[in-house]
């Protein structure tokens, strides 16, 4: 009896002490694409999951209606074999975010067809700008957790609790300092959930 009581008490304590993202704002409500604009026909919202649809998402970009400057963006994603997607940050509503803003690569690094990419094209990298560390993705079909921090000209990417891109300095690339968060479809199925953001006050 005492053992059962202890387990209940321990469970309550762990729940009470777990991080509470009260200062984060959900970007996806789990049921529809309210708060997003763009080519929404390439994505499906259902049961708490936002899915980039195979084929339909090729070239389909969706953006947060709101713009952000400095922020911490957290989300979970699940890849399919050979999947390719991207996260646009500080992106304008037109053009290619990889060229006129920044694209954080979402990629199944294990796929044979990606064996000879440039290091700056693998998962977590700032596409063709800064290479992320490899080897920290979970197996295809499992959920990954990722965090992107944008503070001034410095970009950090944390994948499954491992920092794979540490304060990459984008100063010389002269990218926008403010813009939208975007999901950049490339025609393969990728699932997202628990998308949330916290804005960081500008430091003096």
Question: Can you write the helix and strand succession as a string?
Answer: HEEEEEEEHEEEEEE
- Beta content: 35-45%
Q: Report the CATH C-level class.
A: Mainly Beta
Question: Which superfamily, in CATH terms, is the homologous superfamily?
Answer: Exo-inulinase, domain 1
Give the low-pLDDT segments: 1-20
Helix/strand/pairing category: mainly beta
Question: Mean pLDDT, rounded to whole units?
Answer: 90
Number of separate domains: 1
Number of helices: 2
- Main sheet properties: 8 strands, antiparallel
Straight-line distance between termini: 57 Å
Shape: globular
CA-based gyration radius:
18 Å
Helix content: under 10%
Looking at the overall shape, the CATH architecture is Sandwich
CATH topology descriptor: Jelly Rolls
The number of distinct β-strands equals 13
